[in-house]
Amino acid sequence: MADFTVGDDDHFRLDGQPVRLLSGALHYFRVHEAQWDHRLSMLRAMGLNCVETYVPWNLHEPQPGRFRDVAALGRFLDAAQRAGLWAIVRPGPYICAEWENGGLPVWVTGEFGRRVRTRDAGYLDAVRRWFAELLPQVAERQIDRGGPVIMVQAENEYGSYGTDRVYLDRVAAMLGEYGVSVPLFTSDGPEDHMLTGGSVPGLLATANFGSGAREAFRVLRRHQDAGPLMCMEFWCGWFEHWGAPPVVRDPAQAADALREILECGASVNIYMAHGGTNFGGWAGANRSGPLQDQELLPTVTSYDYDAPVDEYGRPTEKFWLFRKVLAEYADGPLPELPAEPAGLAAPLRAALTDWAPLQDVLETLGDEERPESGVPPTFEELGVDRGLVRYRVDVPGPRRPYTLGVSGLRDRAVVYVDGVRKGVLSEEDGTLEEPVAGPAGVELWVESLGRVNYGPRLGEAKGITGGVLHERQFLHGVRARALRLDAFGEQAVAGVPFAPVDGSGRGGLYRGGFELADAAGTGHAGLELPGWTRGFVWVNGFCLGRYWSAGPQRTLYVPGPVLRNGANEVWVLEVEGAGAPYAELGPGLPVRTDPAAGSGV
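^ that's the sequence the OP posted. Answer follows.
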């Protein structure tokens, strides 16, 4: 047993002795569980003594009261202890993290809307039920009970969102009620309004930034004149958006910024030490621009983050520079690196030989169609987190051709008129080019590209949030049916009525496979789909995430543990237009060592 405290003399203390936290962010939910030990060993070899993780509420409670593998957090904390690392846990309830809806479940934001992250009694009751289920995983692994957990965060970057001190106090009190006895902290940007809005008297305030440590800590000291200094998120890289250029940070410049933090006598949490992957379509999105006219920026599947340990688990130039800096602050020699995961031995192709149109996939795997309604139900009203919704509505007639469009579309719709594809609509461009005459039957296959995870538009609804318009007339009598990503299990997909690929390139579910002789010796692979447009990929029933020809990401990461000796199966759910009838697999992307080379994804 040990005692970890926040001293009033600018030090963390372990059993009374000063200690500096050299932490790195690694999210257990972005790394295949069979790879946790390796990635944690890489953090230890870089010179870290602690690991930090968020906890995504929506992953573990997809529906009210239906919990899914909450024990994964406990298993990860056990793995951290095996690796010789302390642990910092950031349980939310909101986490941001470039994660779908900032970690908040759809049923929470759908019900409470703008009341989330406030003192609202109904919202706090939902948080309480979640914490009652989650926090025993943390409490029983605290350092004073022989575990690795040394600190727990109360909420997350609240000063970037609001000023409800009553809410923050109640979240902090809840953590204590459910057994959290280690020090609590908050983290916010080093700006007065953020620290004013997000700090809680009596809790350690920490700062998040990517450079300028001395100035950042000077601002922090205006709000907290004593106690340890800590950069809770040292942004050593950044995330990427679909349709935007790759993002990199010069390794030497990042290492200099890390050194500046440590020269200030501060502790640090490198965000990210290893980013991992947004498997399963869980990537979030951001909004950019004036508040009332913000562009949606969906986050890519890779969460490589230009981190020192790349998406494939390999050390980058940034790793070696960070290790050199951190070695100066280590208690002794740093451990050697674990063996590097091996890529696929040789490139191969997975022939995609079978196909089923989206209609047939929906009939087999979709929810029941909702009864006709006056207005299109949103994804939230349908209880849909990730996937597609097919909306059907009729244009009455006879009438002459008029423009057909959608108001309040979030985020993208493939439109069919009388069974013929007529175009793809987006939030920014919500009107078909070709007018539509009546009578006609209209189908709109709408996909959320990721829910907003940061800012005042957190929790906004997805799907058709306005209506379908013919000229300026709303079309009523809408039928909606959902196709959820979670419906794509191996047994369920086996029931889809596949036929041989016909070469039409139409959207639908494609199936194929490849043979592999040495799955156990393969640590990872990279998968590409030449000429394909947008959709999702599974290997042996494991969802790798979204692909999109918009780039910059071209290669999806395939964790070695999902591969099998012998036959391996690939599914591709293409929403817009298929390319070559195969997927290409190779050893993965080259390790990122030259900042001028771009992200490679």
